[in-house]
Design a protein that fits this description.
6% of the residues lie in helices and 23% in strands. The chain is mainly beta. The two termini are 28 Å apart.
């Protein structure tokens, strides 16, 4: 959906923009698929802060999304396209022929009244249909891809994201992910045809601190502005450098550009090309 820019009537509106909600057909969620969740404010089970700058924000309910879509060969009609405060993409409320209703991630172009299906056999490769990768034509765009058969979609779920099915060889399918990484997954893993909805979501400029507080994002203080006892970057007179070869986290570990993936992780064998190589060769 397009991004709306208002006239700069205030300082906050001068640099901010909002997303259009013309594609949203209902503002009343299906209550049976709502879940109330307590705000953890960036704290783990032990009560310690594990993610900084989290807390407050507008109250929101979790929508129960069907990541598996395991009602096979039962057509489902799209009843509504709704806004989900927990993600950038839109969600669609499906009504199955047996009366059950479920939320799914809405692909780009899905409209109310359309019929989509999930099947283990080869079917029409239309937008919104879900099949095993081996049943999808090579070269198509897919999203909500499983890493292990039957575990539900784990990859390519962000707004506007899509992976390209490159090949089917042996027991595995090769995908090019949105990051540029090329990796293999079992060909029996399910994927939904199409691109995730609302691709312009990342173009929204939040503009002012108040809108970030609504999103549960609290203020962030630069480490350089702190004292040496509070941050490795702290101390010094005026606006000088951080005084070290590379930036560090508040706990003293290296930050920005440091590889965090384990070198001996078993799934490394399924990565054909890492995303760093993809960007360098582009």
């Amino acid at each position: 959906m397009p991004i709306i820019q208002y006239k700069p009537t205030t300082a906050g509106r001068r640099k901010s923009s909002v997303q259009s909600f013309k594609d949203v057909t209902s503002t009343t969620p299906h209550k049976a698929l709502l879940l109330s969740q307590k705000q953890m404010a960036g704290r783990g089970a032990s009560g310690h802060i594990t993610v900084r700058h989290r807390g407050g924000g507008a109250k929101r309910h979790v929508r129960l999304i069907d990541w598996k879509r395991d009602k096979y060969d039962i057509p489902a009609q799209v009843q509504t396209i709704e806004y989900d405060p927990n993600r950038g993409a839109r969600i669609a409320l499906l009504a199955y022929a047996d009366g059950e209703k479920r939320y799914v991630l809405a692909p780009l172009g899905l409209t109310v009244g359309m019929s989509i299906v999930s099947s283990k056999e080869r079917g029409e490769p239309a937008m919104g249909n879900r099949f095993p990768l081996e049943k999808i034509p090579v070269g198509m765009q897919v999203h909500n891809v499983e890493l292990e058969p039957g575990r539900g979609g784990k990859m390519v779920r962000g707004a506007g994201a899509a992976a390209e099915l490159l090949a089917i060889e042996g027991e595995r399918a090769t995908l090019r992910l949105p990051s540029g990484e090329v990796r293999m997954v079992p060909k029996t893993c399910f994927a939904t045809i199409g691109t995730v909805s609302n691709p312009d979501w990342r173009l929204v400029r939040w503009g002012k601190a108040g809108r970030m507080r609504h999103r549960s994002v609290r203020p962030t203080v630069r480490g350089k502005a702190m004292n040496p006892v509070d941050h490795p970057h702290g101390g010094g007179e005026a606006r000088n450098s951080i005084g070290m070869p590379s930036p560090k986290t508040p706990t003293g570990k290296k930050a920005l550009g440091v590889k965090t993936r384990k070198s001996k992780k078993p799934s490394n064998a399924f990565i054909v090309r890492r995303r760093q190589h993809a960007k360098r060769n582009a």
